[in-house]
Design goal:
The chain has 151 residues and is an all-alpha fold. The chain contains 8 helices and no strands.
Length: 151
C-alpha cells in the first residue's frame, strides 16, 4: 500500500471523525450543565450546590444541557452549535478573561474549556454534524422519492 492510498483512506474517514468529534464534545459539554444544575457527577459550583435557574449560570447550564443533548444526537446541529459557540465565547470573556485579565493565558485563568468549546461549536456550525446524526438521517429521508417508498 503506497502513501497516497493511505492518505486517501484517511481523508475518507473525515466525515465520520467529524461526527465523532461532535458526539464526544457534546457528551463532555452536557456534563458541565449537569454538574451545575444537578451536582451530577459532582458540584463544580464554588462552595458546592447548584446554580439558580434564574441566573446567568442557570441559563448557561440549561444551554449546555439541552443544547449539548441536541448536538449529541445531531439534531438542528448548525444553529444550535452556532448559539453554543457564542455562549462559550461570552462565558470566556465574562467568566475568565474579564475578571483575570484579557491577555492571561486560558490555561491559567481556567478558560481553556470555554475557548476550545467555542471553536469546536463554531466549526460544527459551519461543517455540519457529519453522517452519524439525526440531521443526516432526516436529509437522507427527505431525498427518497415517494414512488420508491410505495413501490
Amino acid at each position: 500500500m503506497d502513501g497516497r492510498n493511505v492518505e486517501a483512506r484517511w481523508r475518507a474517514l473525515s466525515p465520520h471523525l467529524l461526527s465523532l468529534l461532535r458526539i464526544v464534545a457534546a457528551w463532555l459539554f452536557i456534563q458541565y450543565g449537569t454538574t451545575k444544575l444537578f451536582e451530577v457527577p459532582a458540584s463544580i459550583v464554588p462552595g458546592g450546590g447548584t446554580v439558580p435557574l434564574a441566573s446567568q449560570g442557570g441559563v448557561g447550564s440549561l444551554l449546555e444541557l439541552i443544547g449539548g443533548a441536541f448536538l449529541l444526537v445531531g439534531l438542528f446541529s448548525r444553529p444550535i452549535a452556532f448559539v453554543l459557540s457564542g455562549e462559550m465565547a461570552v462565558a470566556y470573556l465574562i467568566g475568565h478573561a474579564g475578571p483575570q485579565g484579557w491577555w492571561l493565558f486560558p490555561v491559567v485563568n481556567g478558560g481553556a474549556p470555554a475557548a476550545i468549546f467555542a471553536f469546536v461549536w463554531l466549526y460544527v456550525s459551519a461543517a455540519g454534524p457529519g453522517p452519524w446524526s439525526l440531521d443526516a438521517w432526516r436529509e437522507d429521508a427527505s431525498r427518497v422519492p415517494a414512488a420508491a417508498e410505495s413501490g
